[in-house]
Amino acid sequence: MFRKDNRRQIWFGAFVAGGVVLGLILLAQTVSTYVYVSGNLVTQEGLRDAERYMASAQRMIRRAEATDAVRLTSVLTDLREESAGHIVWMRLVEPGGSVVASSGMPTGEPLSFSSLRETMRDRGVFYETRETPDGPVLVTVSPIRLDAPEAGIPGSDLALLEVAVDLDQLAAGFVYLRANLVIGVSAALALLGTLLLIRLRFPHYLRGKQLEVQVELARTVQADLLPKSKLISRDAEIAADCQPAGHVGGDFYDVFETDNGQLALMLGDVCGKGIAAAPLMGFIQGAAEASPWTESSYDHETASRRLNALLYKKTAAERFISMFWAYFDRDGSKLNYVNAGHLPALRMRMGASGIEATRLCEGGPVLGVVPGAGYSQGQVDIDPGDVLVVFSDGIVETENGSEREFGESGILQAVADEWYGSVEDIRSRIMDNVRQFSGNRPADDDRTLIVLRFSANSPVQYEEESIAVYA
């Protein structure tokens, strides 16, 4: 198991490391692709815009027959204003470097003929990017011919037309690139974050899976400790059920025959439920069965006191157990029992006016709370056909949507409805009625039930406290 878990951790670590590498590659590739593509596209778009404006300037200068600096400046200004802010400045520069005409607020020295010649010799496009107070601009030049050298432009009719294009406005047209950048970076960061979270939580997940295996093992062991749901005895027909609220419950029961042939039963409820209650349940069940408590009333009461003392000594204050345990005396047709703080079991029989139920209350406090507590054994007569119902609080305390409890009355009614049926029918009717009463909601507490129908032969001698009669 240990080696298997180690192999899982190694493989998991390798997969996480691979995922991190892929995430970093995706992040770097997304950013670099955005920078490269956006830079190139914006630059190319800027050069195309500048080329269009230069061609327009050439046409407008020829059409306006602009031959002096004033008219040339006017043409450049009109063109820049028509560009709707795309052109930051335009200027005409003579071969010697003097500015002939200008529109806008230029930044830096004009581009020169010598730089243009070197670029054209390399068959490249001459441009540069400059930072201005209003943002970055792309500056490029192109030779332009002025048709009237006699117009006061010294040197030649050839000049350079310099155009500066606003890069921020151009970049605004490529919003989809930014959206792709945001999506790509977000995906990469989400992948890295998810992998980091998985890596941090994996030990807890692995530990949880290990606990699940242990819980399943505990559930199996607990189920093995419980007897079969249908038991056969020469003294009674028996049916039982135990439905834990979780994977592992705190209720326990057992029905067995002792070495001297007596029918014995017990049903206990450990305070709380789940993993913490399960070991205590097994401990009590083993301790109870190991003691000779069915020999006499003295042995039964002594075993109860010793069990209480043992639990008080060995368990925490918040851990205690309620338990009903009894054995059937075949010779006297009596059920001898001790109720240690548990819900009273019900002995039910058919009377003259209907079904009569008797609560079995004699005993003492819950086990493990009061040191030195005393316990007394109770007895109840058993006639052929009498029914004994022992149950945990998970049954009677089940609530419906109106917060009304199923209660003892629900058990009595279910038994009355199935009185002439088998003990399996009675058990099933009670459990079905509980589920229906709760609206089929998951149980909040363990539900445990034992139903016995006695076949003993003995006259009735006395009864304990009688309760409601169901005709």
Describe this structure in words.
About 45% of the residues lie in helices and about 25% in strands. With about 475 residues, the protein is α+β, with helices and mostly antiparallel strands. The strands form 3 sheets. A 7-stranded antiparallel sheet has the order 6-7-17-16-12-13-18. Strands 8, 9, 10, 11, 14 and 15 form a 6-stranded mixed sheet that branches. It has a 5-stranded antiparallel sheet with strand order 2-1-5-4-3. A hairpin with a 2-residue loop joins β3 (about 125-130) and β4 (about 135-145). α9 packs across α10 (about 425-435). The model is unreliable at about 150-155 and about 455-470 (pLDDT under 50).
Which percent range fits the helix content? 40-55%
Which strand order does the major sheet show? 6-7-17-16-12-13-18
Largest sheet: 7 strands, antiparallel
Low-confidence stretches: 149-155, 456-471
Number of strands: 18
Residue share in β-strands: 25-35%
Average pLDDT score: 80
SSE order, one letter for each helix or strand? HHEEHEEEHHEEEEHHEEEEEEEHHHEE
How far do the termini sit from each other?
Answer: 60 Å
- The gross shape turns out to be rod-shaped
The Rg value, from CA coordinates, equals: 48 Å
Oligomer: single chain
Question: From the helix content, strand content and strand pairing, which structural class follows?
Answer: alpha+beta
Count of helical segments? Answer: 10
